[in-house]
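User: what does the whole thing look like in 3D?
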Amino acid sequence: MTVALTASRLATVQADLERRRIRTRWGLVLPAMIVIGVFGIVPLLIILVYSFLVAGGYGGVEWKFTTDAYVSFLFEKDIFDGTFKFVSDYLEIFWRSIWLALLTTVACVVLGFPTAYFMATRPASQRNYWVFLITLPFWTNLLIRTYAIMLIIRDEGLVNDGLRGLGLIDKPVHLLYTNFAIIVGLLYSFLPFMVLPLYSSLEKLDFRLVEAGFDLYATRRSVLWRIIVPLAKPGIIAGCLLVFIPALGAYITPLILGGGGELMIGNLIALQFGTSRNWPFGSALALILMAAVMSALIIYVRTSTERGRAAHG
Amino acid sequence: MPDAVAVEARSVTKQFGSGQESVRALDDVSVTIRENEFFTLLGPSGCGKTTLLRLIAGFELPTAGEILLGGEPVEHLPPYERPVNTVFQNYALFPHMTVLQNIAFGLEMRKVAKGEIDSTVQEMLGLVKMSGLGGRRPAQLSGGQQQRVALARALANHPKVLLLDEPLSALDLKLRQGMRTELKNLQKKTGITFVFVTHDQEEALTMSDRIAVMSQGKIQQLGVPLEIYEQPVNRFVADFIGDTNFVSATIDGQAGSFVRCRSAAGLEFLVTPVAGAATGATVTLAVRPEKITPKAGGNAAKVEQTVYVGTDTTYDVRLPDNTRLNLRVPNALSGQAHFAVGDSIGIEVPPGAARMLQD
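Assistant: Here's the predicted 3D structure for the full assembly of 672 residues, as structure tokens:
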């Protein structure tokens, strides 16, 4: 009888424990859920609704349903006969933004990988020091750092003065307000976001695997491509997402270093809410950008898991 | 050619770090490992055995001296150009590759033809009894299976020398004992020279053709397992391999080919003298617990403790001068021990049972 009693009490205690565990779990996640809901999902819904409304004359919206905002992304309505004509202006800006973001991402991987590898191969006691150095730029405002780049690469800046001083050029090389300037600026801003995830995956790498590779006749290059890179893949993917997505929507860098001549999507969207006073079109652009990024991600995940499954079989 | 040399180390010294913090992992070590030999480097952690293995593999370069493989100096060769392969302590299997891909890796790197790779990989899987598991990833395998894959991966390259760095230490006892026999058989079957690093004396004694016992960066003794166990040259070897009683004794005089030694407690030993041992000198003798014969009814020692270990019982006995001896005696047919705590016993050491040490 004692046994039965103990068993039932044990069940009660366990049920109680389980209930408390669930309550704790929800309690822990609730604040984050509220923040995401209020400041993430609600604005997104507002944008979605606005993108289907008519633009107000002085900004804002008129509450009439229309798909004009989406249509005007690709077509222009002739004011006289009302026919639609294909325009590629906005697509070109999208295209250029994707290109610039891609180039930035590639440059970040190329520069970031050796850096992260160097950090990960330091003695454990020194690594935190290197991580600290990587995060150092965050101590200064991005705007100020971007202006600093502007001062360095402008016609009378450090780079051109130096090249002229060395007698390599007579006339200043025009660097500022070019796509090159934007990429330099984006690269500089986003490099830490590449280095840190790369470092965290390389730090976990078992360097005995590298030795095993050498032992099995792999040259340095084969060890890099067949062992280190595949094992650092999660870090490379995380770094690429952390760089590509914000670079695609960058605002300050193209504004300052592109000089307004070289627009990126971020600037185009900002323009609709500012000077152009076309909130629905701005909203539509933001949603098209989001849809493009998300579908690219989904396609990537699909293909990579399929390939992974194929490799298993 | 049973006496052809597979690996030779000539006066190899390896120093890590510099200045005050430098550590001398290997100190003027010379050793010759023959072809087709199961050679074991045995010693406690930090004795330099793994360092010597890494020097042979090419992961480290000697501070002084040279390493020769098949008679050729290999200092200038990186690991991937040496005809040796390693089985790593924790296997170091590539986690992102299947078993097949792991085993094929070395062959692919050497640009072996695809058809030949496939047949070699299948042959290796069969050799280590893993056929049918080629599609698994290392994480889906047990420790023992990972061990087999690591072996197959190294052997697939048909190396001249296979280096094994404590390959059994991560396995549980039963598996380890099974793998001992298998490793030994594998070595015989393939005819590859095995250089095996371990800190486990039982592993070394049961598998090796020859053993080098190492301590503090030096080889203390080199010989076949029987020599290492029966004729340890110094205190370290006698102590590290098996259980030993150390007895301090004085040389009394000649007795045939032996010399007679007497301990402070009056025990008499007939031992083979080492070079330079003169009458009257004090020497250290090593006596294995199982070589001492207790006699009922004597009064040379008193039993202080008995430990039942299944087949045997070990006795901790105290001599009149308060020194202790450890005895190991097979139990009677009934399993009963021959003596109990408090019994007085006689002690007899057969001629040649004790071993005079060099230091």
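In plain terms: Chain B has a mean pLDDT of 91. Chain B touches chain A through 27 residues (CB under 8 Å).
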